[in-house]
Design brief:
The complex is a heterotrimer of chains A (258), B (356) and C (295). By secondary structure, chain A is an alpha/beta fold. Chain B has three domains: 33 residues, no CATH class; 38 residues; 222 residues, MetI-like fold. The chains are: A alpha/beta (258), B mainly alpha (356), C mainly alpha (295). At the B-C interface, α1, α3, α4, α5 and α6 of B face α2, α4, α5, α6 and α7 of C.
């Protein structure tokens, strides 16, 4: 079937094992097995409603916040099941960060946005340094260094996503989950985000959900194609786009549906 | 045909978060050999940027103190919410228990059907109908004033007024609702009653009409505001459809919008009636202290609420039968207003127009 | 085809002129109705002012009530009102906001929660005298607080609790969900999210709603009559268990006397009460305008 790309377990930051998600009676994600390798960018693609965002949200326990959602199977983080009974979702979310589709900065200063994560996690140290480091990693430091204490909402819509990324980085996650991070942005802002993602993989494992296939092709090293909750194909991006093994994959990437 | 996957917005409700039974701070069993806090060294990541270098390294179970704090906060908040439940229980308990003492001596039949109310005189009669009639008379009179004016105001605000006008007028109407009821009582006694007597000299100094007028004025904002909300909820498309057929504005208002918003309008009527029923100070001041079973608004009457106030003001000793009448009347009042509120809610929900 | 033919085709009788007239009359009636309330309000204010303004003076504010109208003042009533305001606020604000937080952020959507919500909505419609009866039985007698200002404040607190809860709920609900999600995704616990993100945003709305609820509370006389506020109080409260009076009750007392001089005093006291309420509402509106911002 070619659905699972075989990464050795030690190299897998995240792993899904027969992972299913039910919303009430509907099975949104069906028995998925896959491994996400460390320090790589993996893209989830597929038509609207196929479960890619739902699958993404399994890895930082954000599905817990949806009243009807039920998980079956396992989601592993360095071999530990994230859904084990004694695992604290709050802790999980610190280690596995998320950037949302629509930028959602807090109505506070840029500094306080970024400092929020470290503060609530009991950080003792130089906050200024953490804020600067996160903003540098998000390629935003030079633009905002003089107005750290002005409101994050004063930034233009296209700019607001990068403080959100910086904010996520400030808690030092290992994995960064990005749910269509550029879909609400204009082309120039999108390009900046994509460049950023390329840089981020030095330090982080990145999983990005995107409905834009060209973006997936530009940014990721491995791509997983999902359809109606199932993992159809998963492999190196180049190969998946130029020489897909599954018929449905080929149909999707050539635009015959979705 | 298999249903496609649903895209779910995630309303952030309480859900499963924090509710998992959490064990102590021991490393997760079966993990691939992680010690608490130590993270595997990943090639390519320098130590300065390793996870846990600036933040306290922790196992995925999280610190126990945090779980404890969250649980405590949740318990405190729940206790606060319990206060509202306890309030209702308290009201019901007090009214029922004390009334039981009353009804041990006075038969409920006499209470509910008797037409004379003279607990403070001998011979004592305990028929609540005069008080009930007083309350109904005032409420009906108030409704007569407030309902037409309120709905007409709502129509004007919703269908005719410019946004700027509405922004000024709506809060001004709210001011009417904010005036303390003693002030309305004063106004009724010193302004409305003399005016009524100049028109209709047979009017008593204390009379139901005066009180009904001011109570009506007092509840206009309630009717207007709730009706206007109901009318604003009617989609523009409905109005536009009517206009496109050549209807004039008043026709659209009366034949399209009002019928569509009817459940909300009726619900507002009932709520306002309930409010009028429960009004105390204005009627105590203006309507009088004479329980009388009458339909004549120009006579003095006493409402259920005014009676309760009167006994409380007086010297009636605690524990006597006269004293306990407060609770019996209070129970009747509570039951009636509760019923009206429930009916209002029912009307609102049951008959609400669905527009899709 | 001329427009004429269409207009007279078949069975339509549009009667444009009649309907236009009706339209004008209707609009005028609706406008009149809207203005009736405002006109009456103006009448009321003029009437009260005319009756009582000449009795307003510094002495009026600082004198105690007396059997002689010239020597009577509202000192004890005003003090009682301010005391009640503070105590009621202290009792109702925390409980009300906490309940709203629980309902909006913690409670699962089950039958019990729905019951709590319905109950609160019903409590908002209970007549004030019933709260007075509850206060009498619970605070004055069962808890043996007597006819004291603390019993009065607690009674009023229970009365306005539903109002505060509903206002706070709306303010909390208005906070965009994306903020919460952003905070959770950073590893914030529920309480951290509420306290550091949600509440600061909801706070102006909560405050406004509370002030409006409090202004209702201090205009009330009925529940306090039942709880035992006195009418002739020649002292100001110094401790929680003191007897007391409040402005609405003083007003009621003076209105109930036959002498016109006391009616004038009542009018003057009304003016003071309205001034206090005006001040509170102005603060509420100011806060709402100052702090509501686009998120």
């Amino acid at each position: 079937m070619g659905a699972t790309t075989d990464f050795a377990p030690e190299n897998a930051a995240l792993e899904a094992r027969k992972l299913s998600v039910f919303y009430g009676d509907t099975e949104a994600v069906r028995g998925i097995d896959l491994r996400i390798p460390r320090n790589r960018v993996v893209a989830f693609i597929g038509p609207s409603g196929c479960g890619k965002s739902t699958l993404l949200r399994c890895f930082n326990r954000m599905n817990d916040l949806v009243p009807d959602a039920r998980i079956q199977g396992e989601a592993l983080f360095h071999g530990t099941n994230l859904y084990a009974p004694d695992v604290d979702p709050v802790e999980v979310r610190r280690r596995i960060g998320m950037v949302f589709q629509k930028p959602n900065p807090f109505p506070k200063s840029i500094y306080d946005n970024i400092a929020f994560g470290p503060r609530i996690n009991g950080f003792r140290g130089d906050l200024d340094e953490v804020v600067e480091r996160s903003l540098r990693r998000a390629a935003l430091w030079d633009e905002v260094r003089d107005r750290l204490h002005s409101s994050a909402l004063a930034l233009s819509g296209g700019q607001q996503q990068r403080p959100c990324i910086a904010r996520a980085l400030a808690v030092e996650p290992e994995v960064l989950l990005m749910d269509e991070p550029a879909s609400a942005l204009d082309p120039i802002a999108t390009q900046k985000i994509e460049e950023l993602i390329y840089q981020l993989k030095q330090h982080y494992t990145v999983v990005i959900v995107t409905h834009n296939m060209q973006q997936a092709a530009r940014v990721s090293e491995y791509t997983a194609f999902l359809y109606e909750g199932e993992l159809i194909e998963y492999g190196p991006t180049d190969r998946l786009f130029t020489n897909p093994r599954e018929e449905r994959t080929e149909a999707y990437i050539t635009g015959r549906f979705g | 045909m298999r249903r496609g996957c649903r895209k779910r917005g995630s309303p952030v409700r309480s859900g499963r978060d924090e509710r998992l039974p959490v064990a102590d701070e021991t490393p997760v069993a079966g993990a691939a050999g992680h010690a608490a806090g130590a993270m595997p060294q990943v090639p390519g990541i320098s130590p300065a940027t390793a996870v846990g270098s600036t933040l306290p390294g922790r196992a995925l179970t999280g610190p126990r103190s945090r779980r404890l704090r969250e649980r405590t906060v949740g318990a405190i908040l729940f206790a606060a919410a319990a206060v509202s439940m306890l309030t209702t229980l308290g009201i019901v308990a007090v009214l029922v228990v004390e009334s039981a003492g009353f009804f041990a001596e006075v038969s409920p039949v006499e209470f509910l059907t008797g037409t004379r109310w003279t607990p403070q005189f001998r011979p004592q009669h305990f028929g609540v109908l005069p008080l009930l009639a007083g309350s109904i008379l005032i409420a009906a009179g108030a409704a007569l004033i407030a309902l037409p004016i309120g709905v007409a105001s709502a129509i004007y605000l919703s269908e005719y007024a410019h946004a700027r006008v509405r922004r000024v007028i709506k809060p001004s109407l709210e001011v009417l609702a904010g005036v303390p009821t003693v002030v309305y009582g004063y106004f009724a006694l010193t302004f409305i009653t003399p005016w009524l007597r100049s028109i209709w000299p047979a009017t008593d100094v204390f009379n139901a009409a005066s009180a009904a007028i001011v109570v009506g004025i007092m509840i206009i904002p309630m009717v207007a505001s709730l009706s206007e909300d109901a009318m604003s909820a009617v989609p523009r498309a409905l109005r536009e459809g009517a206009y496109a057929l050549g209807a004039r504005r008043f026709e659209v208002a009366t034949r399209t919008v009002v019928p569509a918003a009817l459940s909300g309008i009726v619900a507002s009527f009932i709520l306002a009636l309930s409010r009028a029923f429960g009004e105390t100070m204005a009627v105590t001041i203006a309507a009088g202290m004479t329980p009388r079973l009458t339909l004549n608004p120009f006579e003095s009457v006493q409402t259920m609420t005014a009676y309760i106030a009167q006994v409380s003001l007086g010297e009636t000793p605690v524990g006597t039968l006269e004293y306990r009448t407060i609770f019996a009347v209070g129970l009747a009042l509570f039951a009636i207003t509760l019923l009206m509120n429930i009916v209002s809610n029912f009307v609102l929900r049951r008959f609400r127009e669905v527009y899709e | 085809m001329s427009a004429d033919v269409h207009a007279r085709s078949g069975h339509f009788r549009p009667r444009p002129r009649l309907r236009r007239t009706i339209g004008f009359v209707f609009a005028a009636l609706c406008l009149a109705a809207t203005l009736v309330g405002l006109v009456v309000l103006a009448l009321l204010l003029v009437d009260v002012w005319g009756d009582g303004a000449h009795r307003l003076s510094l002495g009026f504010l600082t004198r105690f009530p007396s059997r002689l109208p010239e020597r009577a003042g509202i000192r004890s009533a005003l003090a009682g009102t301010l005391w009640t305001l503070g105590l009621t606020a202290a009792a109702s604000f925390p409980v009300g906001v906490a309940t709203a937080i629980w309902l909006e952020e913690y409670a699962a959507d089950n039958r019990f929660t729905r019951l709590v919500r319905t109950n609160i909505a019903n409590l908002a419609g209970v007549p004030s005298v019933v709260y007075g009866i509850l206060g009498l039985a619970l605070f004055v007698r069962a808890l043996r607080l007597g006819n004291s200002i603390i019993a009065a404040a607690l009674t009023l607190a229970l009365m306005i609790l539903p109002v505060i809860i509903i206002a706070a709920q709306e303010a909390i609900r208005a906070v965009p969900n994306s903020i919460r999600l952003g905070a959770y995704a950073l590893g914030a616990t529920r309480w951290q999210t509420i306290r550091q993100q949600v509440l600061p945003i909801a706070f102006p709305g909560i405050l406004t709603g509370t002030i409006l609820a409090l202004s209702r509370a201090i205009g009330e006389a009925a529940p306090l009559i039942i709880v035992g506020a006195l009418a002739f109080v020649p002292f100001t409260p110094t401790k929680l268990t003191d007897a007391f009076t409040v402005l609405p009750i003083q007003i009621f007392n003076w209105i109930s006397r036959p002498q016109p001089a006391f009616h004038e005093l009542a009018a003057a006291a009304i003016l003071v009460l309205l001034a206090v309420l005006l001040g509170m509402n102005a603060i509420a509106i100011f806060l709402r305008n100052r702090y509501s911002r686009k998120l």
